[in-house]
Amino acid sequence: MNRREFLSLTGTIVSSAALARAADAPGDAPADITLRLSEVAIELGQGHTIKTVAYNGKVPGPVLRMTEDKRVAVDVINETSNPEIVHWHGYHIPPEVDGAMEEGTPMVQGHDRRRFMFTPQPSGTRWYHAHAMAGQDLSKGLYSGQFGMAIVEPRSGAARYDLEVPIILHEWDPFFSTDKGNDVEYNVFSINGKMLGSGEPVRVKGSQRVLFRVLNASATVQHRLALPGHTFEIVALDGNAVANPGKVPLLDIAPGERIDAIVEMDAPGIWIFGEEDDRQRANGAGIVIEYAGATGPAQWVKPAPFVWDYTAFGGKGGFPEPAAAVPLVFEPRFDGNLWAINGKSFPNTDPFFVVPGARNRLVFDNRSDMSHPVHLHRHTFEITRYAGKPTSGVFKDVVVVPKRSTVEVDLMANAPGPSLFHCHQQFHMDFGFMALMQYRA
Fold it and tell me: Is 178 helix (H, G, I), strand (E, B) or coil?
């Protein structure tokens, strides 16, 4: 892949002043999008009602649609007492509107409002969510109902399918489990805000091509999903078209990731599209897929063992040498913080630097016994080597770095300003697993 192709896929950012603005007052013109944060009670099903903070009174928040390169104004109205912030995940937008206070985006104070203006890019499946610290409070941040899907429509060349279905995963009733090293576990699971069997089914017809846009909006849980009798054709990861679309029997998706998958509806019946893990599925992690004219109970068939591999959707690799290589070592800590990057925990982590306007290689060296889904704000990176396997053409903004393994990614440094890098497990991010990427002068 040459530099021009790489620049095209990773997007080009012009000056912050030309693209974005965060204003105290909304002004006279109406906003294109209004997000109202308020406390709500949501009925998930099976006798489970949860109280949480959500966008526009619903969980998930509304599916937002934007057009690539068409400027939008977003009003965020905070009706709660706590400062909040909305992160536009997967967008190439300037730091003052990206939605991370570490980058300089202003918080929206309690009982206040703020307008954010930006030009959405690139096209694809994106999302928006709370980016406030939660710490030990398992009702804040991504443990809450503050999440929703956003779709940035391309200027041209839209994909062809008959039906589009969002699938948004989340968990509820979290608790600390001392059996798993003080990790977070959950009693209740949902898809699109409902437990399995409690919401409306997804109604399909035979021979339809259905695009499932799958988003894992979990605070901490990686999911494996199957739809018995069907296969998934992977066409995009994190909203970015893959070099080598391929068919797989199940989806493996970490917190923050998105998968676009086309499914040929060629197995009439009533099926459960759900989590492979029996306990999670029994506690809500599923949704019913119902063919027209089909009757009877929804069926589940356990999928055969399958290893998910990003490189299956890429090319054979082969890249020019980067202008810089940046080592990022992930290790556990035992001093009150849980995690460190290059030996330090946030807020004491050292910033890491990239060369402006050039290809830079980030080397993720995971020296822990836990996999980590790491996310870089405001950029898209290309996986160049995954656990020893070279690849190309797989562009993502979240990548799972397996335990005791190394992953290399390249990014084009074309979005000046601070960019937040962190594990997308909320509990890990809150306890040290975070740093800022900066551009060399």
Answer: helix
Domain with CATH 2.60.40.420 in the chain: 11-153, 163-308, 324-439
Overall pTM > 0.85: yes
CB crowding 380-403: b at 16 or more within 10 Å, else e: bbbbbbbbeebbbbbbbbbbbbee
Pairing of strands 223-226, 202-204: unpaired
The predicted-structure confidence for 271-301, as pLDDT tens digits, reads as follows 999 999 999 999 999 999 999 999 999 999 9
**Single-letter code of the amino acid located at 372:** H
Instruction: Supply 438's token pair.
Output: 């900066």
pLDDT digits over 156-173, tens only? 876 789 999 999 999 999
Q: How far apart are CA 12 and CA 25, in angstroms?
A: 29
- Beta strand 147-153 with 64-67 is parallel
Taking the C-alpha atoms of residue 93 and residue 104, their distance in angstroms, rounded to an integer, is 13
- Quickly list DSSP for 324-378: EEEEEEEEE--SS-SEEETTB-TTSPPPEEE-TTSEEEEEEEE-SSS-EEEEETT
Secondary structure class of 10 (helix, strand, coil): helix
Helices (H), 11-67: 16-19
Q: Which fold has domain 11-153?
A: Immunoglobulin-like (2.60.40)
